[in-house]
Amino acid sequence: MNIELEKVSKVYRTGKDIEVKALDSVDLKIDQGDYLAVCGVSGSGKSTLLHLIGCLDLPTEGKVLLDGKNTAEMKDAERAAIRNSKIGFVFQDYALIPYRTVYENLIIPAYFSNVRRKQFGPMVDKVLDVVGMKDYLKRRVDTLSGGQKQRVAIARALMLDPDIILADEPSGALDSKNKTELIEFFKTINESGKTIIVVTHDFEMAEAAQKIITIKDGTLVL
């Protein structure tokens, strides 16, 4: 899936007369199979960019095009379908259900798709094999270490074989060993043809990407 942003701005209204411009006329093109790191200080607009690409939000001005289709012109159901099947999300806080097992967490995306339940098991086995967690299928998430939780989060993002992986500060809670493993996972996933977009403050995470862009005050810095 090719991604293109044309003069994209995003304004948030935090009060009756208060506006915050998170993105300001951003132009960006990302081809299928790219590995992009988005860098910048807190509040620069990095996460807003990720949310727009991931159909979690819509621009105030401009266009976000996914394979040439304007996300703002899609119906809610179409955007939801893209979020579930075409885009995998990896969040800094993992966004896992702590009192559920690894298996129960991984099948959540499949529940909101057309996948038959008899396919859940093979799909889970496949993605856990990718992240080296096959022996943890029945473990509750709240018994896992931070690195193990991040692996499960990556596995969940891969469940429906998406075209794009969006990761928001994925190494933020990891030690150096687990961060190194995360970087290797992303390289392997990218080599399989998937697009990876990582928002990060981490120099090592950024250096692992093929391309790096920096956002400052909502604007791309060239």
Summary?
This protein has helices at 46-53, 76-85, 102-106, 108-111, 120-130, 146-158, 176-191, 203-207, and strands spanning 3-15, 18-30, 35-39, 61-66, 69-70, 87-91, 164-168, 195-199, 211-216, 219-221.
Shape: globular
* Mean pLDDT metric: 92
Q: Report helical residue fraction.
A: 25-40%
How many helices? 8
How many β-strands, per DSSP?
10
Tally of separate domains:
1
CATH topological fold name = Rossmann fold
Cα end-to-end separation: 24 Å
Name of the CATH first level: Alpha Beta
SSE ordering: EEEHEEHEHHHHEHEHEE
Backbone structural class: alpha/beta
Give Rg in angstroms.
Answer: 17 Å
Q: Biggest sheet: strands side by side, in what order?
A: 6-7-8-3-9-10
Model description:
- This protein is α/β, with parallel strands linked by helices and 222 residues long.
- The protein has 8 helices and 10 strands.
- The protein has helices spanning 46-53, 76-85, 102-106, 108-111, 120-130, 146-158, 176-191, 203-207; strands spanning 3-15, 18-30, 35-39, 61-66, 69-70, 87-91, 164-168, 195-199, 211-216, 219-221.
- Strand 4 and strand 5 (69-70) form a beta hairpin.
- The longest helix has 16 residues, at 176-191.
- The model has no long low-confidence stretch (mean pLDDT 92).
Key terms:
222 residues; six-stranded mixed beta sheet; Rossmann fold; alpha/beta; 32% helix; 8 helices
Helix/strand layout:
Blueprint: E1 3-15, E2 18-30, E3 35-39, H1 46-53, E4 61-66, E5 69-70, H2 76-85, E6 87-91, H3 102-106, H4 108-111, H5 120-130, H6 146-158, E7 164-168, H7 176-191, E8 195-199, H8 203-207, E9 211-216, E10 219-221
Parallel strand pairs: 3-8, 3-9, 6-7, 7-8
Antiparallel strand pairs: 1-2, 1-4, 4-5, 9-10
Helix pairs in contact: 5-6
